[in-house]
UniProtKB/TrEMBL annotation:
Lineage, top ranks: Bacteria, Pseudomonadati, Pseudomonadota, Alphaproteobacteria, Rhodobacterales
Record bears the keyword Transmembrane: no
InterPro entries linked: Homeodomain-like_sf, HTH_RpiR, RpiR-like, RpiR-like_SIS, SIS_dom, SIS_dom_sf, WH-like_DNA-bd_sf
Biological process per Gene Ontology, one example term: carbohydrate derivative metabolic process
Entry's Gene Ontology molecular function annotations: carbohydrate derivative binding; DNA binding; DNA-binding transcription factor activity
Protein name from the UniProt record: MurR/RpiR family transcriptional regulator
Gene3D superfamilies assigned: Glucose-6-phosphate isomerase like protein, domain 1 (3.40.50.10490), Winged helix-like DNA-binding domain superfamily/Winged helix DNA-binding domain (1.10.10.10)
UniProt key word Transcription: yes
Keywords on record: DNA-binding, Transcription, Transcription regulation
Annotated signal sequence range: none
């Protein structure tokens, strides 16, 4: 769909954005519901589908269903074999099936240009990086912080208490990047933090779920991960996939600098005997 953006009208581009932001749910609604959600006419929906090379809205929905089916079935083939042998598959495999769906649903929504831009922002030595997560995503924020802090200087963990955030906001400006993690139930404090940081000119990179945190309206870059799982809690494995891929890319962009920092860090570990030496 992104390949066809240049040939779409303004209304059609807005419709395409709605489809991509709520992929694949938006496209599986009725044509009337989709048109209302995008605030366009139903003929606009049909015209856009035809510009994508499809016969109409029904063909667009069929293409979406086929795409989703392909994304889910291919990585699930081994689990399908297990399920075929035992219709009452063990809960471990049922959970794994949900994770595979999340991973492939997430990858289908990632804009590669946005991924590259996010990595470049995090690798820019002229920018300060600030990181914060929510109640469930705190561990994701910690993981990103721990690795970026090793790779480059100027990385700050805002901490668990919102009471100290104003002090950190003092240091945020147009050369700052605020990385936030916010999945359902979306946290009011994180939204307030995003608004204050945005007002100071900071760029915002958001990791959220497939439905999208309200912070998405403020974010410069937004990664929507699929998080549903057969559990009382959402799964953040797809979020971790994006985090680890970004960490790897940032380290690649800062290869020489990160090598020097890691070597110095290892020297400190050796001097303090932090880890066991088996030599």
């Amino acid at each position: 769909m992104r390949r066809h953006m240049a040939q779409l009208t303004l209304s059609e581009r807005h419709l395409a954005s709605v489809l991509m932001e709520d992929y694949p749910i938006a496209g599986l609604q009725s044509i009337t519901e989709l048109a209302q959600a995008a605030q366009v006419s139903t003929p606009t929906v049909v015209r856009m589908a035809r510009k994508l090379g499809l016969d109409g809205f029904s063909a667009l929905q069929e293409a979406l269903r086929s795409e989703i089916s392909d994304q889910i079935k291919k990585p699930m083939s081994k689990l399908d074999e297990i399920a075929a042998e035992d219709q009452e598959a063990h809960k471990l495999y049922r959970f794994a099936a949900a994770v595979f769906r999340n991973l492939h649903g997430t990858l289908a929504r990632v804009d590669q240009d946005e991924f590259d831009t996010a990595a470049a922002l995090m690798a820019d030595p002229a920018r300060s990086i600030f990181i914060e997560g929510g109640r469930i995503t705190r561990s994701n924020a910690d993981y990103l912080f721990n690795h970026l802090q090793i790779i480059r200087p100027g990385v700050t963990d805002l901490g668990r208490s919102s009471g100290v955030w104003p002090q950190y906001l003092l240091d945020m400006d147009a050369n700052s990047v605020l990385v936030l993690f916010d999945i359902r139930r979306y946290e009011s404090d994180l939204l307030k933090l995003a608004k204050l940081a945005k007002a100071r000119g900071s760029r915002i990179v958001l990791f959220t779920d497939q439905w999208g945190s309200p912070i998405g309206q403020l974010a410069d870059i937004c990664f929507n991960s699929h998080v549903e799982a057969p559990s009382s809690w959402d799964s953040t494995i797809a979020v971790m996939l994006l985090i680890e891929a970004l960490i790897a890319e940032v380290q690649t962009l800062l290869a020489d600098e990160s090598r020097t920092r890691i070597e110095e860090l290892e020297s400190m570990f050796t001097a303090t005997r932090m880890f066991r030496d088996f030599n």
